[in-house]
Give the backbone structure.
Amino acid sequence: MPEVVIDIKDLKVQYADTDTPALNGINLSVEKGEFVGILGSHGAGKTTLCLSINGIVPNMITADMYGSIQVAGEVPPKIPVRELATKVGSVFDNPEFQMSQLSVFEEVALGLQNLGVDKEIILDNIGGALEMVGLKGFEERSPFEISGGQQQRLAMASALSMKPEILVLDEPTSNLDPIGKEEVFTVTRKINQEEGLTVVIAEHEVEVIAEFADKVVLLENGEITKMGTPNDVFPDLVNKQSDSGVRVPQVTEFASKAPNKFQGSYPVTLDQAVESYKK
Amino acid sequence: MNSTTIVCNSLGHTYPNGVQAVSGVNVSITQGEVISVVGQNGSGKTTLVKHFNGLLKPTDGNVMVGELDTLEHSVGVLAQQVGYVFQNPNHQIFAASVWDELSFGLKNIGLEEEMIEKKVKQIAEEFSLTEYLDLNPYRLGFSLRKTVGMASIIAMEPNVIILDEPTTGQDFLGVKNIRDSIHNLKKEGKTVVVVSHDMPLVAEETDRVLVMCDTELIFDDSPSKLFANNEVLDKTNLKPPQISSFTTSVGISKSNNAILSVDDALKAV
């Protein structure tokens, strides 16, 4: 039986300064190696879900939490965030906020040094992590003088240096240009497919989610309103884009409005659409 | 004054550190056009548009905003004709309340108190900001704060409005609101210049695209010509909207005119 690495039951998260809960009755089970895309409008709960998985909520950002959450065999609210970071890596939307050191090398080393890891293991892990994200040779560069895509890959390397089982990415490409976006998505897919890391990513780029994700989770007002494969979820959203706040891939919208051209199938990627289109 | 033509003559810009960001750009933008400026980061697109309201001054050639040579006039004067909405609202917003932010520019251009009040209310209504007027802009989420930045510029009713990456970090509704605003501005006869990586926005909302690559303007034509031009797309790493790629690969669109939207694709089959 596949190993469940994230197991969330009836999770409710309530911040002190708002009336309505940020998450309200979330049930989510993620298997080892899955690529999970979280979709939803601003304020739907995507960030809170990500921050609950890596323990920042409630350990660093205070909130009342009800229900149960297990991540990589740990209960996030019960262990310090920096310890959980050895099992769950995190990448946020603004890479610059994560940078603090004078060189790429020191930036990646920081987390491991804080954990008191042996020097040799540190060197080994840093090398491996930089290799994985394609930043070998950047060791001496300043984190503030590289491109946005490179900064975000550096943030990924910092997370990966701790050898986590899971990587959580909260809108990692929102502030990047198209080349930067592609770099980050390529690396994300690589560590999922080649290294077997479980990936949970909140993202507005639905074309990419449609292509990469095994499972798509739609959040609306703190609740999961749809969950399934991209082919299950996107066709149902064509007429609910305004309500859900989530765009669907253009080929999915086209196919749903010209069904006779696709023999009733609902493509969600360009390749699927080209294949099933009847000339 | 209800018409402003922007003309760049052999415009070049070299920053004080010696980096050349724009070279040899000749372009003329007439009142009422909706234009996008695209290209990778570092291609020179933001440097180019910052010349349109004098935020940057040419180091080569010149830029005319209406009758005014930008080398001879301050941003304050030029801004009455050309408004600039920054990509990051935090670089623009400084007032303690949404009301103050929206009224600041109006006070600056010397409107009377009564008129200011009327205009602030009107613009707040138009951008669905009425309920936030008393709040500090920094209590609002990024998306709403961006709307405040845009509304405060549009309130001054400049002839030309420059939007720098308006849809970055916006969700479906945020993008829709921005698209609606561009529609409205177009209807009012405003010139809109959109700097963007959002190719569906470029394809569906703008009539003309300027492509910047390595400091130079390498393409100036319609979106449907751009998304059918593989040479320019490859050189600049620009990706057409998915529907354009799809209709091209299955042969729905004609060879040198890309289809730009799902609606156009439906009409073509």
